[in-house]
């Protein structure tokens, strides 16, 4: 953004970089609000695209990754996810993240959803995929990460979301989107059958 630029109903009168590293940029903007009053708007801009994967095996089990999340100081069970460079196709980044974190590869991929993660303060965007027809390899996680892997049936994963045990946004969106799409016949039949096994279908 630049000084004097109009952004929807806001007008930017000044911009100052507060912080920058290889992953994020934080900027403070002096603005004129839609009602004409002056104010400030801080924006965190992410340099990578978030990617997530819901991998489901032939038994209808999804693979979860557990790790302690530093910003929240809490342990979190999540579907495989990470970041990809913006000039790299998101599917390529999703395939890399899945294999690095779990050792899994998938022959079948379906783009599941795309959404803004926290649009009041950041431009971070996520692209998520459904993956099936899996084969196992060897995981190669980032040495700085301490990951735990477990498998759960999709119906149990849905219950973890519904009960609040899972609070990760990408995981919640992927699980609910997959369930709704399967219910409405918006996914290929083989994967819909695995997702809906043991679940109400009305």
From TrEMBL:
UniProt-listed InterPro entries: NUDIX_hydrolase-like_dom_sf, NUDIX_hydrolase_dom
Transmembrane segments: none
GO terms of molecular function: hydrolase activity
Protein name: GDP-mannose pyrophosphatase
Keywords: Hydrolase
Superkingdom to which the source organism belongs: Bacteria
Domain Nudix hydrolase: from-to ranges: 46-174
One Gene Ontology cellular component annotation held by this UniProt entry: cytosol
GO process terms (BP): nucleoside phosphate metabolic process; ribose phosphate metabolic process
Cofactor(s) of this protein: Mg(2+)
Record's catalysed reaction(s): GDP-alpha-D-mannose + H2O = alpha-D-mannose 1-phosphate + GMP + 2 H(+)
Cell wall biogenesis/degradation found in the keyword field: no
Family: Belongs to the Nudix hydrolase family. NudK subfamily.
